[in-house]
Amino acid sequence: MPESAETEPLVPRRRPTQERSRRTFDALLTAARELLVEDGFDSLTCEQVAARADVPIGTLYQYFANKYVIVCELDRADTTGMSSELSAFAAEIPSLQWPALLEKFLDHLADRWRDEPSRRAVWLAVQSTPATRTTAVLNERILADQVAGILAPLFPHQPERRARMAQVIVHTSYSLLSYSVQDDHDHQAIVTELKRMLGGYLLSVQ
Description:
Layout: H1 19-39, H2 46-53, H3 57-63, H4 67-92, H5 98-115, H6 118-125, H7 130-151, H8 159-180, H9 187-204
Helix pairs in contact: 1-2, 1-6, 2-3, 4-5, 4-6, 4-7, 5-8, 5-9, 7-8, 8-9
């Protein structure tokens, strides 16, 4: 990747506006997700993605400059979906009952990482370069901003610390969930420790 682009967030060249274009765009992302799980990020190529999606390579390049942009878009899609789910949990469980919210949402998140191998494949892929990591941080910040809002009633007078805590919670959760689904790891035991860790963290600053 060009040095000048290393710290710029990676986004598609354009996003589809018509139904047919959206189907093509989604087919490319679905193909990339499948290939990531099957072969890993190092082996992923734009040519493979286009072939799997049955889309001309020139059409792929209309949307994505390279495979780094593709995995960042997959990460954004995962983040958007998780953001919607977090909103639903937050509406169901009041902020002041944060232990129940934390327990329920972490269980849901852990199930996603266990049952959908592409979650970890995408997360690992976006850790691969400075530009993908920059974009991943921006995506994580979407969730962190939500978490900070949920924590607001607990720490109403510490907005800066609340924002920092939310970022720590989100990144720690993703890192340990990635660790939990590796071969020979006890997924549920690690999730239990994650709950204890984050619960103790929040209790320590009240």
